[in-house]
Write a structure and sequence with these properties.
The strands form 2 sheets. This protein has a 4-stranded mixed sheet with strand order 1-6-5-4, with no helix packed on it. A 4-stranded antiparallel sheet has the order 2-3-8-7, with no helix packed on it. It has one helix at residues 10-26; strands at 42-43, 46-51, 55-61, 70-75, 78-84, 106-112, 123-127, 130-136. It is mainly beta.
């Protein structure tokens, strides 16, 4: 025997509403983080910037990059980190590709530095896909402690 199910015209509207709610909860794509459905070959690097008494510290996650593929520069109060991984030339010895999913792209990240730094004394270390920059503050940018006298 066949069961009859009553048609509810509002049921479709509820499923559309649920889909929109889900999209908003998951978050909309960010223009500077790249569009997930449009592969333009340019991405952004995840960066942490924090300050100690003596230095500004920058840590950037750059998986798949080598130190030779990364360029760091400071222009005024802007730190620029950029890199590029180029596609290897096609070689007959490799054979026929069935999958080609390795990343061949570039990135560029600019950060406004909150204090003035001495770019000549900056140090960069690249280990396990993480770039660590130590940017010493100039003397004028360092915090000065003022002693309080009791009267």
């Amino acid at each position: 025997m066949t069961d009859l199910i009553r048609w509810d015209p509002y049921q479709r509207m509820l499923s559309l509403r649920d889909a929109i709610d889900r999209m908003v909860e998951e978050g909309l794509p960010r223009p500077f983080g790249g569009w997930p459905w449009l592969d333009v070959g340019t991405q952004s690097a995840a960066v942490d910037l924090y300050e100690t008494d003596e230095n500004l510290m920058v840590e950037a996650s750059l998986p798949g990059f080598n130190p030779e593929q990364v360029d760091i520069s400071i222009a005024g109060n802007t730190l620029i980190i950029k890199g590029e991984v180029k596609r290897e030339e096609e070689q007959e010895e490799k054979g026929k590709y069935h999958y080609r999913e390795r990343r061949f792209s570039s990135f560029r990240r600019s950060l406004t530095l909150p204090v003035e730094v001495d770019e000549n004394a900056a140090e960069a270390v690249f280990k396990n896909g993480v770039l660590k920059l130590t940017l010493p503050k100039v003397a004028a940018a360092k915090a000065k402690r003022i002693a309080i006298k009791a009267e």
